[in-house]
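Hi Y.,

Following your request, here is the sequence exactly as I used it, all 145 residues.
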Amino acid sequence: MQTTLTHTGGMAFDVEIEGFHLTVDAAPEFGGNDLGPRPKPLMLAALAGCTGMDVVSMLAKMRQTWTRFQVRVEADLTAEHPKVFQDFTVIFEIDGEVDPGRLARAIALSRDRYCGVSAMYRAHAPVRIRAILNGEEQPEPPPAS
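Below is the corresponding structure, written out as tokens. Let me know if you'd prefer a different format.
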């Protein structure tokens, strides 16, 4: 697996990932032109994408149906350089015909067994889970057995 970045000017880079391209850039106050996202938010997107794909796949196999499935990741940075994430919160917001127990199981399996991004991040900072099913906060899933 590899990713290639090619400098395109200023603080901007073209990022090539598996044949797909996107631009990363810095904010104007840091010499950039705001042409694309910053690298750290892409780390949050990687976590959301990894666990989201896991959970969607498992819920489909469990024959659960949803009308909305959204994953949001929030994280706090340390105050001092190098600024690193000191915690993560993954928030699943799901509406539909989804059994709360099956949702908890799918989330726990992703968190504890399948999502490599979550495993890497957990090695350095806590990763908390929130699940909101049909507008109701669910308990954090217990560890997958």
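Residues 86 and 124 are 8 Å apart (CA to CA).

Thanks again,
Q.
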